[in-house]
Amino acid sequence: MKNCEYQQIDPRTLTLSPPSAEIYNSGKRRRRPRKKWEVFPGRNRFFCDGRIIVSRQSGVLPLTLGLIVVTCGLFFAFDCPFLVEHLTAFIPVIGGVLFVFVVFSLLRTSFTDPGILPRATADEAADVEKQIDTSGSSSYRPPPRTKEILINQQVVKLKYCFTCKTFRPPRTSHCSFCDNCVERFDHHCPWVGNCVGKRNYRFFYSFIVSLSFLTSFIFGCVVTHLTLRSQSGRSLIQAIQESPASVVELVICFFSIWSILGLSGFHTYLIASNLTTNEDIKGSWSSKRTDEESGNPYTHNSIVTNCCATLCGPMPPSLIDRRGLLPPHHHFPPASSSSSSSDAELPSFPAKNDAHMEDNCLDFAFSCAA
Questions:
Q1: Is 189 a known active-site residue?
Q2: How many C-beta atoms surround the C-beta of residue 270 within 10 A?
Q3: In this structure, are residues 185 and 172 in contact, taking their beta carbons and an 8 Å threshold?
Q4: Rounded CA separation 147/340 (Å)
Q5: What DSSP string runs through 185-242?
Q6: Distance between terminal CA atoms of the chain?
Q7: Taking the CA of residue 211 as centre, how many other CA atoms within 13 Å lie in the half-sphere pointing to its CB?
Q8: Taking CA 75 as the corner, what is the angle to CA 72 and CA 80, rounded to the nearest 5 degrees?
Q9: What are the tens digits of pLDDT across the range 150-174?
Q10: Which listed residue (164, 175, 189, 195) is catalytic?
């Protein structure tokens, strides 16, 4: 056996290979600041770095936008040239203005925060439970379901949300589709792909009203187009054969105009009464559920004032601060699957035992000597 000189290797002087060192140091490397929308606990999707917020179940929104674009495209392509030649050039101008207003209102309704309330942190939730639990018992007691406050000399009950860990403010409800508490919750509209609440209700109302005018305008223009064609020595069937796209427009407008007009009238009544769809369906202020002397505590007893308060008031700010940076060393609830661009957690590398590493080095040296 040949003798070979060897020296005891100090494990502290060993260096990792470049790939291993990069992986090891990446765990210690400071992660980039994350924004709150990346760990948002609700069921929402965010785009454009958190500037756009929509519901996870927003698959009907492209259908709504597609029906509007296709119907208006057929109208401008097949009906407007004939109507401009025989009637006036203002018809495509009026249709274009209505189309732009409808699309703008739809996108503002879909991409605007409806008034989501942030969920309580662990400290805030514990403080609420301490205020509720006055018995001094160490056993856990769930907080009560309601809390009474006084609004315009009328008692209003606030419900406790077990998901958001806070008492819901007046006129606030928890949306089961988006999993958020929304201020002045009206309803969840799948056609716009978002909840309708305090911050986007005016855009929703302008959308359905302008869509009513646009649908009625296109329907009347298409009927006029076919009537003028049939009066020029042709039958109605020949007029339809010359402009088959008009039939598609008639079918779409005929089956949608009644529901849109009814929806616009219903929400006009709600605005004049300062009610929400949620309150009207539940009958929150109906005489059948409340005393005869009580009524809607939020009404201003004037149709004009109610309309101005709902549609012309200042735009309240968003409370969730979705583009704000996360505080350092602060743990938020796990983000939903809709949140994208989240960093993967780096695996932790446990430090090796120095004694174990030293034994391996000695074994290697002896094998070399052998």
A1: yes
A2: 19
A3: yes
A4: 37
A5: --EEETTTTEEE-TTTHHHHHHHHHHHHHHHHHHHHHHHHHHHHHHHTT--HHHHHHH
A6: 6
A7: 31
A8: 130
A9: 888 888 888 888 888 888 999 999 9
A10: 189
